Amino acid sequence: MEPNRKTVIVTGASQGIGAGIVQAFLARGYNVVGTARSATKSKELSASDHLALIDGDIGQFETAQKVAQLAIKRFGSIDAVVANAGIFLVKPFTDYTPDDFRALVSTNLGGFIYITQLAVKQMLSQKSGGSIVTISAALADNPIAGVTASVPMITKGGLNAVMRSLAIEYAKEHIRFNAVAPGVVDSPLHAEDPEDSLKTLSPMGTISSVEDIARAVVYLTEAGQITGEVLHVDGGAHVGKW
C-alpha cells in the first residue's frame, strides 16, 4: 500500500464511460477498484498493481460489500466513489413492464445506495472526508420531445435529489456529493444509433466523448469546495428548448 495514494471505487467499469473514468483516475495516480457484471472480462481494462477488478451486480448489497471489502483489503481506504452503473431504456410510458421498473430501480438506485452507504461508513471512520459522484442524466432536468424515457428518469431524478440531501447531511464531515448529468455520449449505449440523429439532441449539435464525462467526474472528485452540484455535460441541452 502507498499511503499517499487515494482509492476510488468505480461501478459500471467494464466499458464505455465507466472504463474511461477508471483510466482517468489511474492517469492521475489513484488506486481504483472497478466493478461491473463482467469487469474481469473487460476489453478496455486490465488488472494491475493499482487497479483491482471485481465482477458482480452492484444492485445487490452483497456485491457492494465485496467491493468495499476489496478496496480496504487491497488499498487500505475508500476515498471516493463514482456510481456510474446504470440502465437506460427508451419506450412509451405505457410499454414499460414491471420487470423493466425493477431492473431500473435495482441498478440505478440500489447500485448507488448500497455502495455509497458502505463507502460513507468507511470515510467517517477515516475522518478525512471523501467524495461521491453519481451519473445522472440531462434528460432528468429537460425532457426532449421524442425521447420517451420517463421511467428511467424517475431513477435519475431520484439520484439528483438524494445527492443534494446527502451533501447537506455530511457537509460537516467534508464528505461531498455531486452528480454529472451527461447528454448524448459517444459510448456503446449509442453504438447502433445514427450519428446525425444524435447530434440533433444537443443545442451545440455535438456529441460528448467519454473523455468529456471522465474529466467532469475527476473535477468534481477533486473540487474540495463543491458539493450538492449537478454538472451538466450535454452541449447545453438542460437549458431548455432549442
Kindly describe this structure.
This protein is an alpha/beta fold and 242 residues long. It has a single domain, classed as NAD(P)-binding Rossmann-like Domain (Rossmann fold), CATH 3.40.50.720. 39% of the residues lie in helices and 16% in strands. It contains six helices and seven strands, in the order βαββαβαβαβααβ. α1 crosses α6 and α2 runs parallel beside α3. It is globular, with a radius of gyration of 17 Å.
H-E order = EHEEHEHEHEHHE
**By helix and strand content, what is the structural category?**
alpha/beta
Classified in CATH, the superfamily is: NAD(P)-binding Rossmann-like Domain
Average predicted confidence as pLDDT: 93
**Beta-strand level of the residues, as a percent range?**
15-25%
Which CATH-level-2 architecture?
3-Layer(aba) Sandwich
How many runs of DSSP E, i.e. beta strands? Answer: 7
What is the overall silhouette? globular
